[in-house]
Amino acid sequence: MIALALLAAVLSQDTNTAVSPRVRAMLDRFPVPPAGAPSIAIRFSRDTVWVGEQVELVTVTWFPRSLRDRLRRLPGITSPSLTGLWSARNQQLPIPVGTRVVGRQLYDMYVSWQTIFPLGGGRIEAPPAVLTYNLPTSTSYFAPEERKLVRSAPAVLVVRSVPSALTGTLGTGPTASGLRLTWRSPVATLHAGSPAIVELAIAGAGNLTLWPAPQISWPPGVHVYPEPTEEHPVAAQGLITGEKRFRFTVVTDSVGVLTLPAVRYPYFDPAVAQVQPATASALSLAILPRAVTIAARRALTVTGSADVPLATALVRGWRPVFVALVLLPVVLVGWRHRRRRRVATTPTDRDPEAALRAALGTPAAAGEDHVVAVLRGRGVPREEAEHVRRWLSAVARWRYGPQKRAGIPDPPPAVSHVIARLRRGAPLAIILLAVFPLGAQREDGVARFVGRDYAGAARAFAANVATDPLAAGAWRDLGSARWMQNDDVGATAAWLRALALAPRDRLLRDAWQGANGIPADLRALAPSVPLSRDELLLVALVFWLFAWIVVARQWRRTAWATGCLCAGALALAGVRWQAERPGQVLITAATTLRISPHPATTAVGELPAWSRVRIDRRYQNWVLVGGQVAVSGSVGSVAVQGWIPAASMVPIGPLD
Q: pLDDT tens across 178-223, in order?
């Protein structure tokens, strides 16, 4: 008996967090079932409510555990179906919430409920709920089942209408609690003649869907176009709350100040049975001159250059580059000694024609005209190339004449000079090709830009930066093409990357300074010190080597100053590295943050245009972003995280 009581005490604890607190608070109002049989009952959370006030209809079922163990299938519970009410949230699947011992039998308690809002006054009667189960007539598996049915008593709800003395003041206002009104201005700057979306947000408790649009007296000189409303319901302690946003597209005719008027929104508060006013204060917005169109924008200059800055080419390798700089003198001395020894041991009877063709990279069967053309391409003067032609013709006659002759006559001094110069230039060209990447000229993008095909030019320059993400000129040209097609956010992202690679580029600085409309927080990201991160690292390396030199000469003051300069350059390079981390993007237009990568999932917030965030994860055409973002109506920045479509962002440089 003691063990059974302890088991009942443990099982009777309500550990189910899915039950609404308002429903859990009324469970004690249901009667204890009679011993030996199941029971079902329904109740409204309140017997009398006002029109539009939230109320719950709860269905409670008590079922003996010993009887449930005899059943071959689960019992069925049918909650009452109501009309003339607005159903906001249902929990039709019964939830086990407790256990109790009644007449020495263990009973399980199951709960389901409906959250509803009455739409009109009067008396509402909820029909009985029904519990059905099939009870076997014996313990045999093949025994027939007897169908049992248990009905609850009906429940009655009295709905009171708003007092007639208050209807004139209320008008079409809703029934709600604690309403707050706020104007929300667009994040982007407003320009005369350009459309912008403003929002009037209403937050509080109640049925968001039934909240009517407020009456707004718009000032003259502004054209207003209503947009679809947005509802963001939230359940707080079982009470339906949230925010409803009434959105309007406004277009102003002239420059000046647009004052969004003060709005009064009356509502009936059932807690005090009075009409309460919710008020939004007037909001003034600055209207700037008309935005510059594509045709009126100042034509920018593109070069089609895909050169990688020298400092970037040297530093991106980090440790191998620094080791190469230390070992470079040793390598050069060893290579020079080896070359001298190779020249000294080279046989004098080597075939000069074969040496010439090897230096040029031309096949042995190539004619004199082909060899001369290659020589001219290498920068050999015309007279020397003609000397080589005549000498090759003489060698062919000597070698393939009617009489077979051994050896080839020595070339004239002019030809020997050309061969020696080609031998010296080949290793140097190989070294330059290995150390410095060749710059390429991308004429397709330039031609499209000159022909005012800015979209095509942007695609061509985007392909260039995808091929070589370190080409500062290609990023600058991509930003210019985007700017000329009115993609200001995309242009800013490309220019920020170009400024990180080449902060002293004159064309880039001119385009950056002349671009209006870029927010101040993004302009602050441009490097104030005209040195890139890689140049700062090279400067730190130079100061580091010089510091060791002055230490060896025991110039202590100079060593301390040089060390401080080295540390300062390294610190500034570290700050740049932190600011230029990959994975940063700009939001092209206001987009909704969602809890998962699907457009039908719950929204957790909204990212305004020009927001700078980082990418945490990627899934198909969605990205998980996060960061500190300035949100309208808040002080400072707010931490945000959520999924957005990949098409609503533009990267600042490479993502990886």
A: 999 999 988 777 888 778 889 999 999 999 988 999 999 998 888 8
**264 CB-side CA count, 13 A:** 7
Give the confidence band of 158 by pLDDT, cuts at 50, 70, 90: very high
Residues 338, 344, 348, CA angle at the centre, nearest 5°? 135
Q: Distance between CA atoms of 523 and 43, rounded to whole angstroms? A: 62
pLDDT tens digit string along 497-522? 888 888 888 888 888 888 877 887 88
Judged by DSSP in three states, 232 sits in: strand
What average pLDDT does the segment 277-291 reach? 85
Provide the whole-model pTM.
0.46
Secondary structure letter of residue 210 according to DSSP: G
DSSP lists the bridge partners of residue 136 as 145
Contact 154, 128 (CB under 8 A): yes
Question: Which of 186, 188, 194 lies closest to 610, judged by CA?
Answer: 188
Alpha-carbon distance 139 to 145, whole Å? 11
Residues 6+ apart with CB under 8 A from 85: 116, 117, 118, 119, 124
Biggest CA-to-CA distance, the chain = 131
Give the Å distances, CA to CA, from 537 to 51, 500, 540, 569.
72, 14, 5, 7
Q: What's the mean per-residue pLDDT of the chain? A: 78
Residue 109 clears pLDDT 80, i.e. is over it = yes
Nearest to 99 by CA among 3, 13, 4: 13
Task: Output phi, psi for 653, to 5 deg.
Answer: 85, -170
Concatenated DSSP letters of 280-337 = E--EEEEEESPPPPTTTSPPP----B-PPPHHHHHHTT-HHHHHHHHHHHHHHHHHHH
pLDDT of residue 438: 38
**Tens-digit pLDDT profile for residues 383-427:** 777 777 777 777 777 666 665 555 566 677 767 777 766 665 544
Lowest mean per-residue pLDDT among 76-80, 619-623, 634-638: 634-638
Strand partners, 24: none
Question: Cα(358)–Cα(362) distance, rounded to whole angstroms?
Answer: 7
CA distance 628 to 488: 21
Query: Both tokens of residue 527?
Result: 């490097």
Q: Are 388 and 418 in contact (CB under 8 A)?
A: yes
Q: Which two tokens stand for residue 29?
A: 């109002």
Structure tokens at 102: 């009644």
Instruction: Give mean pLDDT, residues 525-537.
Output: 83
CB atoms within 10 A of CB 465: 22
CA distance 616 to 618: 7
Q: Are strands 190-191 and 283-288 parallel, antiparallel or unpaired?
A: parallel
In SS3 terms, 625-642 reads as EEEEEECCCCCCEEEEEE
293's tokens: 């169109």
**Using CB atoms within 10 A of its CB, is residue 260 exposed (0-12), middle (13-18) or buried (19+)?**
buried
**393 half-sphere exposure, CB direction, 13 A CA radius:** 8
Structure tokens at 274: 């009075």
For residue range 352-362, what is the model confidence (pLDDT) as tens digits?
777 776 666 66
Place of tokens 């490097």: 527
